[in-house]
Amino acid sequence: MTLVLLALMLLSGCKTLPLGERAPVIDGMTDSTEGWQAYYLAIQSMDEQSLRDEVANQQKLQAQGGSAARLHLALLYSLPESAVGDPALARKALRALSQDGEIQLAGLLKLLMDQLEARMGLQQQLADLQSRLQQQTQQLKEQKHDNLSLKEQINALEQQLQQLKAIEQNILKREVVGNGN
Predict the structure, then answer these.
(1) What is the DSSP code (8-state) at residue 84?
(2) Cα 35 to the center of its chain, rounded Å
(3) Residue 47 domain-assigned (yes or no)
(4) Structural domain of 114
(5) Coiled-coil stretches, from where to where (predicted)?
(6) Does residue 145 belong to any structural domain of this protein?
(7) What span, in angstroms and rounded, lies between the C-alpha atoms of 122 and 117?
(8) From 118's CA, which of 10, 35, 91, 141 has a CA 20 to 30 Å away?
(9) What is the 8-class DSSP label of residue 91?
(10) What is the DSSP code string of 136-167?
C-alpha cells in the first residue's frame, strides 16, 4: 500500500520544499518510503546548481561506501527534464541496487525501473518522430524546389511555343504574300 502511495506521489508531482531549502539528509539505508519520498520531493524543487552539487555530494558518499547514496543518485538521475536527469544512469544505478540485495525496497526499485524504461521508450519514440519530421521537412523542401523548377521549365516551354507560333504566323504570311504576287 505504501509503495502504491509512493508511486502516486512520484507520478503526480506532489508539494515541494520552498526554494532554497536543502533536501533532507538521510543517513544509511532505510525501509521507510517516507524518507525516500521526502528526498525525492526535496530534489524536485532544487535549481540546476543545487542538483549538480547534490549529485557530486552523493557520488562522494557512494565512493565512501554509502548505500543510501546509490539510491539517492538513482533518484537524482531519474528526475525528468532536469540538469542532472539521465535515465540511462538511473537505470544502471537501480539495476546495481536491485542486484545488491541489501536494499529492502524492491518494490520501489521495480517501480522506478519500470517508469524509467517507459520514459526511455517515449524519449526514443520522440527522437524517432523528430527524425522523421526532419526528413519529411527536407523532402517537402526538395519537392517545392522541384515544383518551382518545373514551373520555370513550363514557362520557358510556353514562351518557346509562343515564339514558334509567331514564326509559323510569319511563315504563313510570307507564303500568302508570296503566292499573291
Answers:
(1) S
(2) 30
(3) yes
(4) 2-123
(5) 112-174
(6) no
(7) 9
(8) 35
(9) H
(10) HHHHHHHHHHHHHHHHHHHHHHHHHHHHHHHH
Per-residue pLDDT of the chain (181 residues; tens, 9 = 90+): 343 334 434 444 443 334 444 444 444 434 466 788 888 889 988 999 999 999 999 999 988 877 788 888 988 998 888 889 888 888 888 888 777 765 567 777 777 888 888 888 998 999 999 999 999 999 999 999 999 999 999 999 999 999 999 999 999 998 888 776 6
Q: Hey, what's the cell of 28?
A: 544509511
Block residue for cell numbers 537524482: 76
How many domains does the structure of the chain reveal?
1
For the chain, what is the radius of gyration of the CA atoms? 34
In a domain, 128, yes or no: no
Residue 134 lies in a domain: no
Please count the other Cβ atoms lying within 10 Å of the Cβ belonging to residue 57: 16
CB burial of 145-167 (b: ≥16 within 10 Å; e: otherwise) equals: eeeeeeeeeeeeeeeeeeeeeee
